[in-house]
């Protein structure tokens, strides 16, 4: 059994702009909520540092929005930066929860999840319970990365499998892919009685600075390795140095920055009344 990776909100937030864009694109596809004149009730599963959770209050100003996450570090950051009354008279709070076992504790008009369910292998099995917990006409919407065969992740997997790192990290360095293809999500959600939409987008992110792809994955895909090597700074630096060289060759910097293509998968499912 692997221990959960430790998250670093500051490192994660270094690329907040690029990371928020898919969330905003998803938000644009969410239909009107069924709450009518009462404030909407919204859950954000795997809310992280809360910056995208807070964007929900721009669209539904008087909503009661709760962000759920497993990471103490992420929840502390979210609490500090975003908890409390919102400008439109709504309320934002954050609670610990493991998405693998979370079930709606009250009816929700909207359940969203951005860039989190890839960490939860069983997530497709939770869809029925989550949709059950929606008010009629409510929406379940999520986005997951679909880039696990991209060089950034393939090289990380290959490095972890080399004898040196395999013996040091065991299975900890290996990220298994826990996402489905967009068509699979579409069929599952339609079968659960939803008006479903699924699609994918590859964002061509132009990143600045030195070794920007390494800097990016330090906030996400590298968390399990960094957590495992946290008590051995020398080994961590050796691993990062090897991985850095591989990334430099795969993503050479250009005159205007480094192009880091990033495929993302989206699904928006409205529960039919
Ligand atoms: C890449 S971050 C995304 C954060 C935020 N949704 C955003 O879009 O910026 C992934 C988040 O998923 C959370 N997470 C991972 N596994 C989880 C689980 N089993 N239950 C709840 N949250 C989990 C992590 O703690 C982390 O905050």
Topology:
Blueprint (H helix, E strand, L loop, with lengths): L8 H5 L2 H12 L13 E5 L5 H9 L4 E6 L2 H11 L1 E2 L5 E6 L11 E7 L8 H10 L1 E12 L5 H11 L1 H7 L12 H10 L2 E14 L4 H7 L4 H6 L4 H18 L7 E14 L2
Parallel strand pairs: 1-2, 1-5, 2-4, 5-6
Antiparallel strand pairs: 3-4, 6-8, 7-8
Could you write a compact summary of the structure shown?
Its main location: cytoplasm. By secondary structure, this protein is an alpha/beta fold.
Which ligands are bound?
S-adenosylmethionine
- Give the number of helices: 11
Rounded to an integer, what's the Rg over CA atoms? 19 Å
Major sheet characteristics: 8 strands, mixed
CATH topology: Rossmann fold
E-strand count: 8
The overall number of domains is 1
Structural class: alpha/beta
Give the full name of the CATH homologous superfamily.
Vaccinia Virus protein VP39
Report the CATH architecture: 3-Layer(aba) Sandwich
CATH class: Alpha Beta
Roughly what percent helix?
25-40%
Assembly type of the chains comes to single chain
Shape designation:
globular
Strand content: 15-25%
Sequence of secondary-structure elements:
HHEHEHEEEHEHHHEHHHE
Order of adjacent strands in the largest pleated sheet = 3-4-2-1-5-6-8-7
């Amino acid at each position: 059994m692997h221990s959960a990776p430790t998250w670093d909100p500051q490192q994660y937030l270094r690329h907040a702009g690029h990371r928020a864009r898919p969330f905003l694109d998803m938000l644009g596809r969410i239909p009107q909520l069924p709450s009518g004149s009462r404030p909407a009730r919204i859950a954000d599963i795997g809310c992280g540092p809360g910056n995208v959770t807070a964007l929900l209050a721009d669209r539904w100003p008087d909503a009661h929005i709760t962000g759920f996450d497993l990471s103490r570090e992420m929840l502390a950051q979210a609490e500090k930066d975003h908890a409390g009354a919102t400008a439109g008279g709504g309320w934002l709070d954050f609670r610990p929860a493991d998405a693998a076992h979370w079930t709606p504790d009250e009816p929700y008009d909207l359940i969203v999840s951005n860039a989190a369910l890839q960490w939860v292998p069983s997530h497709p099995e939770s869809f029925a319970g989550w949709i059950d917990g929606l008010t009629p006409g409510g929406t379940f919407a999520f986005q997951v990365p679909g880039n696990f065969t991209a060089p950034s992740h393939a090289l990380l997997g290959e490095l972890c499998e080399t004898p040196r790192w395999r013996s040091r990290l065991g299975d900890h360095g290996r990220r298994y892919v826990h996402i489905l293809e967009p068509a699979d999500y579409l069929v599952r959600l339609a079968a659960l009685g939803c008006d479903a939409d699924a699609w994918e987008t590859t964002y061509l992110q132009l990143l600045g600075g030195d070794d920007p792809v390494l800097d990016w994955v330090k906030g996400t895909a590298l968390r399990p390795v960094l957590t495992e090597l946290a008590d051995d700074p020398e080994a961590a630096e050796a691993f990062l140095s090897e991985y850095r060289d591989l990334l430099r060759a795969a993503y050479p910097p250009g005159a205007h920055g480094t192009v880091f293509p990033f495929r993302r998968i989206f699904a928006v499912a409205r529960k039919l009344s």
